[in-house]
Amino acid sequence: MKNCPVCSEDFVQIEYEGEAVLRCPKCRGSFLPGYRLEIIRHRQLRKTDELKAEAQSEFSHDTKDKIRCPRCHGKMEKRPIDGRYPSLTLDHCRNCDWIWLDGGELPLAQLLFETSARNAVQRDMQKRAAELEASPERKAEFEKNLAALPDDLPGASGDARQTLVADALDLAFGIILRS
């Protein structure tokens, strides 16, 4: 079993939000592949109060020194957990794409994502999609409006075209939900 990069304890494997995570029993740090962190951040199985309590009880400090990856022993680089708090960092190994989060930072990463504008938009779109699925009439109207969108928008290409289509879809959702 790998050793913790902060206190050298052996990791234990735990399940966190349905994903396997290596956890240090002493400092409560977490070591996991980068893709699992994204899965965990997007899963909202734990209530906000539970995440806050876990973050507060387990958070001790944010390591300031560069540490070595417990997996490949390469130097890990500091990256902000969230753009709003650049001084709060996680450690990322570019060689093997694994992440080290100090104690309390895993629930904190979830909390920061849950309070982000990106997550609010995602939740809103999920809610709208569920409402659309619940009403066959609204769904048929949406599909009719979607089919009426032109395949080739004049003067729009690449990102501009994608933005126009996304705006049209938002407008279509809004019209359907208001009717």
Task: Describe, in short, the structure shown.
The chain has 179 residues and is an alpha+beta fold. The chain is built from 6 helices and 6 strands; from the N terminus they run E-E-E-H-H-E-E-E-H-H-H-H.
Plain-language structure description:
Strands 1-2-3-6-5-4 form a six-stranded antiparallel β-sheet, covered by helices on one side. It contains six helices and six strands; from the N terminus they run βββααβββαααα. The chain has two domains: 12-114, no CATH class; 127-178, no CATH class. It has helices spanning 34-42, 48-58, 105-114, 117-134, 136-147, 158-178; strands spanning 12-16, 19-23, 30-33, 77-80, 89-92, 98-101. The N and C termini lie far apart (58 Å). The longest helix has 21 residues, at 158-178. With 179 residues, the chain is α+β, with helices and mostly antiparallel strands. A hairpin with a 2-residue loop joins strand 1 and strand 2.
